[in-house]
């Protein structure tokens, strides 16, 4: 082991040793103190819920920096592209938990030091470790959650964010990414996915109403689908389980629209059930090639014994676009809807940007929000699935990408 490797090993060792007993507010100071072994200062920035600003964590004894815009700054570029960016005496390294983008770490180098390939590799390794530790530390208190917020959350939003899986997950041959707005006031929209074995499943839903009651209905639907799925239920059985629980838990005919889908990665067959929801879109070679209009049934909460599956065969490289009506029906000041045509055009445009799936989706969601006159009148949820090893690799930092390709 070289002296350089030993120094980085010491950084990792110190962070891991102290992580067992630290409080959330200790994390940034411990990481900075460990980085000092390598002659560095380290500042952690977490992306906010809107994915517009990177917000710094406080290091004791140091002035808290200003938040960084995710667009138009060097730190923001490291976040959006999921790659380290050297700039003068600094290196900005992306911080992920697996493939879920959490923020960046800014490393300030000592005078005369050079950020060579080995430095970048080690800095990304430490940033990845810190990303994992942030995820395990967050439940210990409110500090890390508050650091990501620009305003208070409604009770409905608090409920839903506790139930949702990470915004982005990738495995070897596909990636899935979601976005949910308005972050602090989301009501009945939700999403879910599992990536087990070779038959991943995806859900996007929209429970009727707003605020906490809609959030409660969404929670009932998510819990019912998960319980049925984990007991071996297929998509139709999962939908029927949600029907039964909505009827049992609410006396006001509460319902939810939803799409439940399952992709067989061995055959490419996508089976889906559409419970009164906007139809998913299939993209191939950067173009929308099909709108999935089959598999229709009544919204969840209204039993439909005649429901059947829709089926379509996908090819490697295809994308599946799931969304709620808060996307297609978003209106500008003139009353013009965002519409599925505009959604398709922007989805096509961002599919050619060679960006991580999560970044194309972030830009698409911001385009929907920018179209509207003021705060959104309905929740906006988008979920993208890409059946592609390249899509999975693009969600990794370069050093991890190299290792994955070599393996």
What does this structure look like?
- The chain is of the alpha+beta class and 407 residues long.
- It has two domains: 3-147, 2-Layer Sandwich (Beta-Lactamase); 155-394, PPM-type phosphatase domain (Phosphatase 2c, domain 1, 4-Layer Sandwich), CATH 3.60.40.10.
- The protein has 13 helices and 18 strands.
- The protein has helices at residues 3-19, 27-35, 74-81, 117-137, 143-147, 155-163, 211-230, 235-249, 325-328, 339-351, 357-371, 389-394, 398-406, and strands spanning 41-47, 53-56, 68-69, 85-87, 90-97, 100-108, 168-171, 174-181, 189-194, 201-207, 256-263, 269-275, 281-284, 287-291, 296-297, 310-313, 319-323, 380-386.
- The strands form three sheets. The chain has a six-stranded antiparallel sheet, with helices on both faces. A six-stranded antiparallel sheet has the order 7-8-18-17-13-14.
- A hairpin with a 2-residue loop joins strand 5 and strand 6 (100-108).
- Helix 6 (155-163) packs parallel to helix 7.
- The longest helix has 21 residues, at 117-137.
- The model has no long low-confidence stretch (mean pLDDT 93).
Give the tags:
407 residues; alpha+beta; 2 domains; six-stranded antiparallel β-sheet; 37% helix; 25% strand; globular
Strand order of the largest sheet: 3-2-1-6-5-4
How would you sum up the global shape?
Answer: globular
Distance between the termini: 23 Å
* CATH class wording of the largest domain: Alpha Beta
Specify the CATH architecture of the largest domain.
4-Layer Sandwich
């Amino acid at each position: 082991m070289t002296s350089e490797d030993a120094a980085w090993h010491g950084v990792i060792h110190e962070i891991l040793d102290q992580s067992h007993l630290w409080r959330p507010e200790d994390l940034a100071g411990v990481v900075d103190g460990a980085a000092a072994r390598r002659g560095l200062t380290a500042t952690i920035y977490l992306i906010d819920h809107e994915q517009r600003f990177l917000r710094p964590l406080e290091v004791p004894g140091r002035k808290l920096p200003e938040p960084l815009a995710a667009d138009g700054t060097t730190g923001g570029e490291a976040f959006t592209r999921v790659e380290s960016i050297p700039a003068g005496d600094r290196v900005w390294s992306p911080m992920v938990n697996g493939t879920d983008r959490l923020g960046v770490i800014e490393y300030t180098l000592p005078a005369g030091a050079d950020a060579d390939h080995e430095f970048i590799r080690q800095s990304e390794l430490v940033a990845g470790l810190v990303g994992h530790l942030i995820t395990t530390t967050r439940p210990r208190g409110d500090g890390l959650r508050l650091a990501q917020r620009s305003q208070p959350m409604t009770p409905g939003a608090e409920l839903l964010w506790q139930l949702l899986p990470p915004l982005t997950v990738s495995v070897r041959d596909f990636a899935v990414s979601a976005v949910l707005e308005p972050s602090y006031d989301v009501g009945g929209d939700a999403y879910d996915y599992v990536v087990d074995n070779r038959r991943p499943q995806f859900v996007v839903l929209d429970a009727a109403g707003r605020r906490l009651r809609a959030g409660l209905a969404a929670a009932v639907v998510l819990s019912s689908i998960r319980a049925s799925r984990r007991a071996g239920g297929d998509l139709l059985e999962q939908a029927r389980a949600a029907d039964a629980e909505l009827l049992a838990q609410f006396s006001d005919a509460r319902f939810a629209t939803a799409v439940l889908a399952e992709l067989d990665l061995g055959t490419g067959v996508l089976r889906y059930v559409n419970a009164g929801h906007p139809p998913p879109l299939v993209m191939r070679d950067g173009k929308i090639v099909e709108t999935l209009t089959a598999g229709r049934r009544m919204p969840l909460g209204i039993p439909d014994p005649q429901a059947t599956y829709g089926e379509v065969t996908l090819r490697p490289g295809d994308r599946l676009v799931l969304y709620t009506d808060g996307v297609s029906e978003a209106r500008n000041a003139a009353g013009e809807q965002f519409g599925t045509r505009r959604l398709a055009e922007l989805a096509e445009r961002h599919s050619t940007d060679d960006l991580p799936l999560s970044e194309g989706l972030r830009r698409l969601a911001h385009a929907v929000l920018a179209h509207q006159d003021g705060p959104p009148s309905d929740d906006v949820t988008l979920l993208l699935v890409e059946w592609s090893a390249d899509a999975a690799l693009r969600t990794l930092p370069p050093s991890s990408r190299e290792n994955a390709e070599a393996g």
